[in-house]
Amino acid sequence: MEGESRRDQQQAATVAESRRDRQRAATVAEIKAAARKLLVEGGLPAVGLRAVARELGLSAPALYRYFGSHEDLISALIADLYDELTAYLIQLRDSDPAADLGEQLFMIAGGLRDWALAHPAEFGLLFGAPVPDPLDPGHELTAGHQAAMRFGAVFVELVTKVWHQQPFESAPVELLGPELQAQLEQKAAFFGGMPPGAVYLALTYWTRLYGLICMEVFGQLHWALDDAGAYFAAQLREIGEALGLDCPPAD
Amino acid sequence: MEGESRRDQQQAATVAESRRDRQRAATVAEIKAAARKLLVEGGLPAVGLRAVARELGLSAPALYRYFGSHEDLISALIADLYDELTAYLIQLRDSDPAADLGEQLFMIAGGLRDWALAHPAEFGLLFGAPVPDPLDPGHELTAGHQAAMRFGAVFVELVTKVWHQQPFESAPVELLGPELQAQLEQKAAFFGGMPPGAVYLALTYWTRLYGLICMEVFGQLHWALDDAGAYFAAQLREIGEALGLDCPPAD
DNA sequence: CACTGCGGTGAACACCGTTAACAGTTAACG
DNA sequence: CGTTAACTGTTAACGGTGTTCACCGCAGTG
Fold this sequence. Notes:
Largest interface: A-B, 56 and 56 residues
Distance between the termini of chain A: 53 Å
Helix content of chain A: 55-70%
Shape of chain A: elongated
Oligomer: homodimer
Number of helices of chain A: 11
Number of strands of chain A: 0
């Protein structure tokens, strides 16, 4: 938790970065790169301290100069992966200047699936592991949590932009019920002031997208479908219609 | 892989179960019960060979007389958990003789969620871990796989019964597209001869249910909802409507 | 009876995360 | 400048893991 308090203070006070600091940052990056490589090659259990250390010709205890524990390393890795995924989706979203908001929504949805299928181990680490706690104890925000929020914000922001551009039909009150209505209303600010029925649809979009990708990556769909790609596309069209988007027809 | 070949052959040949065999089966059950207990108390990492052995006053190597490896024990545990979950859902489904098929579908959906929330560690073990392979290599069906099929069959069977009783409106061809249409048609036999558009809806039912429960159990919904119960109920009503069921209104 | 094999043991191997004690380099300060 | 402190690395060691081996006692059987 307090691995290098003094260094952080100094770094916060003076923006100056000495040679030591630069080399240290480089080593940290090298460690995370090695951990990432091991994760890709052998999954999470392959990311051991000794394995990472061996990857850059160090001894295992040396890593404790950079990370407080094995768990800290994994957490840092998770945060990095979130950021990488977020950057990838943003780059994908802005890749086609002619794409409207709806098309952008489709693009990042497909992009998330592509990334998940291309990096199953990383995806499982980010989304398959149980998130420890929301904000119950001292609401200590892990770097991973913050990165996860930045990631989710990409979707939330885009959905709200879609709604503000052309409000889609909200889910009816009879469907939600009073309790859910109240909960959604409470979170309205987070969704750019959308009404509860619209927040519900935005949440549905995310829930279904997450579920689909999870099932496919975790191989939970093999029994029913040989190639889940077409199914994913159809589901995406269905969700898009609910958001008032004109979806491209099935090819 | 071939832990006790001779014993299996003998057991297959003669149904007679000697006292030894009975005691052996009892010990196996005891081991799995201890493993289960440790899983509940401390999650998967708490299920160690030495810990299990300690639970019943044995040495760790003794367990190798009953399970070929730690992984085998976990696999057996997974299979048992699938069977337990399946039994629970069946019992729940048949608990109310007055319930029609649609109500039964709601009951097992809610039952699955309840079980998942009550046993998050077990749920993560069953559905959060990546299923190794569908049937690519020698399609060696693990006991866990078979148990998983029995579990899934409960849902498939009930959905098909619902459809045969009162066919719900199939998803339109334009939504599916030719490729998905062909894939679904191929799997029609598995779904009791339902048309592709109906199989698609049945699959959607399962996909959304899985995604919802996964997200909630893995804590991936905390940022948006304080209590996911109401959201789950609304989603269930929405899915039920797609299956032509008259859903109870939100309370 | 002798014999076979099952169920158990403790010792040992290789690995893991982690800590402690120690040494060399490097930056900072009087 | 020299002294000192911090930083970065080492090796040794502790307790933990899954796993294998050699051994041993006892039940069941020919």
